[in-house]
Structure formats: structure tokens, C-alpha cells
Design a protein that fits this description.
The protein is an alpha/beta fold. The chain has 12 helices and 17 strands. β10, α7 and β11 form a beta-alpha-beta unit.
Length: about 350
């Protein structure tokens, strides 16, 4: 294993989805040749640090707190999702991590570089596709990708190779048309392809499928999976789609009103709520229905949303009859009573007291 020898002690890493070059290691560890009792230090070029790390990240606009003391640790090779409604602060976090917005306070590193003091290195290491595609309508799709490649110093051959590799994202029949003639979905897919032209170490996707039709959404999902599984690329995505976070991410952070209120794998988060959810849709007086359901043994986390009352439980089949009896005894008119598996929407509801309202 190729390494960097320094007098001192030995460090070796066992996880190697992404590697840190020797020059970067020397910078990170401020290597010197001072001896430490004659023991030899070996720092390998496969030593891995977090792909994204943030401590007490905060952003305010006057008296408005957009992001409130967020701590993050995203490992190399991980797909991490920020889940939350519009206005939760997701895009603001992404913009700070991408050096597009300054922090009011806190510290962050991306790809091993300090966001505040090493912005140029951060920008060379990342790919970014924001909510609003930054595309020039006067260029064709091909010209857009070629220009992006030149920005990052790629050779003509490298650009041609990368265009072939990102082709599955694109409508190749339209590659030589002006971007101004593209549909919204085509523009978002071209923007994502442009963000991948230099094969970044970390990819930021800010609500990448918002507004896309189901077919385009599936194409983006497949590409995200391929980038992570085949290349080990670290991907940080924000989304308001519960199924997207569930399907794509290794871990999810739930952001609400600028606060990180929960974090974990989708399975872990759902397990905290319960295996099943009993849902009662009532004709009137949902508060009375919630009170009746709360008294049933085995029921927890009863929530009211409109005329729908949901209750988490470890085993829906074993309690649904008791729920029906409790509602009948309380004189509650029930339009529908059902059982379903726990979703991330239930997790969000428990953590914030509200559901995510998707806005296209």
C-alpha cells in the first residue's frame, strides 16, 4: 500500500471508497520530521476523511434564522438526503456548502477542504445542480457540456468520453438543439449532466426531480444509483419527496424551520415511530377520535391531520379491532379504517407536528 512515512506513529484506514492524495495528507496533518521516540508514522494515501463535515452551521438574514446550528457528517461514498418542506433551509445549507452563500457562523469542510478558506479547491472537487438550472438558452446541449468540460480543463478527448458517459441522462435526439427549446425536465437533466462532466468527488443535488414527469424522475433516480454504486461518488441531495429519500439515500436528515430535528437511515427513523400505522378517517370531531384511539393498548404517537387520525403501533393487525371498538363506543362516525406500513411522512409528522406539502 502506497503511503507517506513520517516519524511518529502509524495510521491506517480500512474504508477506501475515496482516497486522499499524499499532497493533501501532508496539508491536512501538517506533517513534520520531528521524531517521537523513534516510532515510525505511516499515513497511507487511502486515509479517508468525511466527505462533508459541518459544525454549528448557521445562516441568518436580519432577524430571520434560515439555518440554525446544523451539525453534519457525511461519509465518503454515502448518499445523504435532506428531507423537508419548502422553506425548511435545505437549499441554504447546500449553497453554503458549495461556497455560493456565506455562513453567519460555524465551520464546514467539503472533500477535505475548508469551505471558508479553501473555496477554490472545494469548487474543483464538487458538482452542483441547483433547483434553478443555470443554463444558457442560446447554446445547444452539446455546446453546454463541452463548455463545462473546458471550464474544468478537460481535453477534447476527455470531454468526448465524459459526454458518452453522461448520455443516459440526456435526450440525445435534442443534443444539438438550442437549450431554449428544451422542456423543463430536459433542462434539469442537462444541468445534472453538466454537473457530472468533470467527475466530481462530491455531487450536490438540490431537489433534482422537482417538476419532472415520472419517466424523467426514474432516469435521474437510476443515474444517482449508478454514480454511487459504480463510482463510489458521494451524493448530497435535498428533496421534498418522501419516496425519493426512502429509495435513494443511505441516511436522511429531517430539516424543519432551519433545525435538524432527526437523522438516521430510513429504516431506523421509521422504526422509532412503529412498524405500522392505523389510520382512521372520520366524519367529524377528529379530536374525540384521537382521544378514543389513544386509550387503546399498544397504540402510540396519535396524530390528527384534518379529518384523519393516525396512530403508530408495533402490530397493526392485532390492534385494529380494538381501535374500531373504541371509536364505536365513543360515538365517532368512521368513514374508513386502514393499516399501512410506517413511512417517512409519519416520521416527519411525529418530529414536527406537520406533514410535508409537496410544491411542484
Amino acid at each position: 500500500m502506497k503511503g507517506l512515512e513520517v516519524e511518529g506513529f502509524a495510521i491506517a484506514a480500512t474504508i477506501t471508497p475515496r482516497v486522499i492524495p499524499e499532497a493533501k495528507l501532508r496539508e491536512l496533518f501538517a506533517v513534520s520530521t520531528v521524531g517521537m521516540g523513534g516510532i515510525s508514522l505511516l499515513i497511507t494515501s487511502e486515509f479517508v476523511v468525511a466527505a462533508i463535515s459541518a459544525q454549528q452551521l448557521r445562516r441568518t438574514y436580519g432577524d430571520v434564522v434560515a439555518v440554525d446550528s446544523v451539525d453534519l457528517e457525511v461519509q465518503s461514498g454515502e448518499v445523504y438526503g435532506f428531507l423537508g418542506p419548502n422553506g425548511a433551509g435545505k437549499s441554504t445549507v447546500v449553497r453554503m456548502l458549495c461556497t455560493l452563500a456565506s455562513m453567519t457562523s460555524g465551520r464546514a469542510t467539503v472533500a477535505g477542504y475548508d469551505v471558508h478558506t479553501q473555496g477554490d479547491q472545494v469548487r474543483l472537487s464538487i458538482g452542483v445542480a441547483l433547483q434553478d438550472a443555470a443554463l444558457d438558452g442560446k447554446l445547444t446541449g452539446r455546446e453546454t457540456l463541452m463548455l463545462q468540460g473546458r471550464y474544468y480543463g478537460l481535453s477534447k478527448q476527455a470531454i468526448a468520453t465524459r459526454m458518452e458517459e453522461v448520455a443516459p441522462l440526456l435526450d440525445m435526439a435534442a443534443i444539438d438543439r438550442k437549450v431554449s427549446t428544451y422542456s423543463g425536465g430536459m433542462k434539469r437533466r442537462l444541468d445534472l449532466a453538466a454537473a457530472l462532466m468533470h467527475n466530481p468527488e462530491v455531487l450536490f443535488l438540490d431537489e433534482p426531480t422537482t417538476g419532472l414527469d415520472p419517466i424523467s424522475r426514474a432516469v435521474v433516480w437510476d443515474q444517482v444509483r449508478n454514480l454511487n454504486r459504480k463510482l463510489g461518488m458521494t451524493i448530497f441531495l435535498t428533496t421534498q419527496y418522501l419516496e425519493e429519500a426512502d429509495a435513494l439515500t443511505h441516511r436522511v436528515g429531517i430539516l424543519n424551520e432551519g433545525l435538524l430535528v432527526a437523522e438516521g437511515t430510513p429504516v431506523e427513523l421509521k422504526r422509532k415511530v412503529g412498524a405500522d400505522v392505523v389510520v382512521a378517517r372520520v366524519g367529524a370531531d377528529p379530536a374525540k377520535a384521537a382521544e378514543a384511539i389513544s386509550a387503546v393498548t399498544g397504540i402510540s404517537n396519535v396524530e390528527v391531520y384534518g379529518n384523519e387520525v393516525s396512530a403508530a403501533t408495533a402490530d397493526g393487525a392485532s390492534v385494529v379491532s380494538s381501535v374500531a371498538v373504541a371509536l364505536s363506543s365513543a360515538g365517532v362516525e368512521v368513514a374508513e379504517l386502514s393499516i399501512r406500513p410506517t413511512t417517512l411522512d409519519d416520521v416527519f409528522l411525529e418530529m414536527t407536528g406537520a406533514r410535508i406539502e409537496v410544491e411542484e
